[in-house]
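Researcher: Please predict.
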Amino acid sequence: MSGKHKRTFDAIFETPVRSNIKWKDIEKLVENLGGVVKERAGSRVGLILNGVFAVFHRPHPGNETDKGAVKDMRDFLKNARVKL
C-alpha cells in the first residue's frame, strides 16, 4: 500500500471525524485494497470489498466527503475486516 493510501485510511479513522477527505482518494483506497467501485444511478457508487457491499453518494458539487459519509466508510471498512 502506498503512503497516500495509508494516509487516506488513517484520515478515515481519525478522531474527531474529518470532513475534508477527497472522495476520489477513498475510491482509490478501496481499489488498492482489492475492492471494486461500480457506477450506479445518479451520484451513487457501489463499493464491494471482501464480500461486503455498500452504496455511497459521491459528494457534489464539491469533492470532499462529509462527516456522515466518513463514519459510514469506517463501518464499511470494519465490516470488510480491513486492518492495516
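Model: The mean pLDDT is 93.
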